[in-house]
Amino acid sequence: MTLTLPPPPAFGAALPQKARPEVLEFLALRRSTSALALAEPPPSADELAAILRLAARAPDHGKLTPWRFIVLEPATKAVFAERLEALARSRGDDKAVAKLGKLKAPPLGVAVVSRPRQAEIPEWEQLLSAGAVCTNLLYAAQALGYGANWITDWYAYDPEAKAVLGLEPGENVAGFIFLGTSKEPPLERERPDVEALTTAWRP
To answer: Which of 75, 117, 161, 170 has the greatest number of CB atoms lying within 10 Å of its CB?
Structure first.
């Protein structure tokens, strides 16, 4: 897909607010690809730079940027997986080893790291902002025609695994977003009954 993004708008520029039917169609049919079905090629360096730029256009109350990105390129992702496998095997945890398959298969990954700031903005809102970044990143990659999957597993929470990733005190993985080309179209999954989950507030 040809990358034709508009340049970043200047600070204070008036931005168009208009209907985007193509976005509604995208959201109506959006489906994550299984991490095990993600193959070469991944987004190019220029495409990844654009995806991250779009991901960063997420709601961020207080403009704190309470998140950062760690890119797991193919070669370095393999080393990361090897170190996690060694960690799991040192514990005799075969189940944890098996769960690394979803990390190993995709050609590219991005860890979205939540790093709440000391501020008036509640930490909960800052965590939500990191989640919004994950969503934007997932959608941007898919809008470019790539498959993507948002994963958290034991290596997102385990203190030693987080140290291998290079996280600092107070940082956590909001999500690993794995990227590649879908080997097969993802199948529709069961969706929630929105009407059953919706109420109108009454005074």
So the answer is: 161
